[in-house]
Amino acid sequence: MLRKGILLWFAFFLICWGLGYPTLNRYDPRSAAGTSDSVDYYRLVTERPQASLGFRGYRVLVPYTAKPFYLLLASRSGSWNPVFFAMLAANALYCSTAACLLVSIGHQVVGDYAVALLGATLFLLNFTISNSHMSGMVDSGEACLMMGVIWALFANRWAALPWLAILGALAKETFVPLALVFALGWWWAAGGQERLRDSRIAWIALMATAGVATVSTIQSIVSQQVVWPWSFAALMRSDRSILSGFLRSILDHNFWFVFLWLLPLGAFQLRRMPRPWVSASFLSALAALALGAYVDARGGNVARSMFNVMGPLLSLSAASMLSNAEKDK
């Protein structure tokens, strides 16, 4: 079983590597539309976090995972850009791990390894994986740790949530509210079917505390002054109205590239998916949309966050639908 898991992870890693290969010497994500944020993440690999990088300077998990690859291969990468080589290695690591976790959970949910494998494949073949997660960005860390949260909830390991919150906060500050809403949605939907609810809500509270404390700590260290969570939230507030931010989020073409086929295909089999997972995923997706409207996110930022929380469920559901459609013939 362990050998199969290692082989599967390595196969997914190479698939991710292929998806992100163009960043090495075919185009520069720093000058491409939709991935210009990679300018700051590029600097995080080669430099120390600093206030001049803005809020992106706080997202250190993926760039710091890339640093060892960069230091090891900086002078040995040939025509490949060594920084994007390192970022590709780090992003492939996180995305392949997320895919393996989805296979494990999917096999448990649908009872069919082939369907679970197809679900993970659909997850990796989504528009946002190759065009964002594997393009010098940091969303792969958030996606992987959200899968970690889903795995912990399925395995009933609620004590893992605070540790995942710490790592997720270092990946991207949006992880904290999204994971918190996800865990609360799962806890609420499980309701009368679950025991020890008071114990579980305590772990969720500890998760929120750990995540918020990590965000505040890393921002204070980088900024060299105390940054309170509410100060950062106020700073990120857009001057535009919430309605304007909402419309800009859902009308962005990148939003529809992500969900145009995934949402219709995935919706058919949602009734057969575990209710807590469905409820938690959609509540978190709504939270991501609300955050996007609050900060007036653009360029598919909302779609990436929504995919990280809802993509695994929809990918597995779509795989189940396609598999059942084939069996019905």
Produce a short descriptive summary.
This protein is mainly alpha-helical and 329 residues long. It has one domain (2-328). The protein has 17 helices and no strands.
Keywords:
single chain, 329 residues, mainly alpha, globular
Q: Helical percent range?
A: over 70%
**Global outline:** globular
Count of distinct strands:
0
Largest sheet: none
Describe, in plain words, how this protein is organized in 3D.
74% of the residues lie in helices and 0% in strands. The protein has 329 residues and is mainly alpha-helical. The chain has one domain. α14 (253-259) packs parallel to α17. It is globular and about 50 Å long. It starts with a helix and ends with a helix. The model has no long low-confidence stretch (mean pLDDT 88).
Topology (elements, then pairings):
Elements: H1 2-20, H2 22-25, H3 38-46, H4 61-73, H5 82-110, H6 113-124, H7 127-133, H8 139-154, H9 161-171, H10 175-190, H11 197-223, H12 229-236, H13 242-251, H14 253-259, H15 262-267, H16 275-295, H17 301-328
Helix pairs in contact: 1-5, 3-4, 4-5, 5-6, 5-8, 6-17, 8-9, 8-10, 8-17, 9-11, 10-11, 10-16, 13-16, 14-17, 16-17
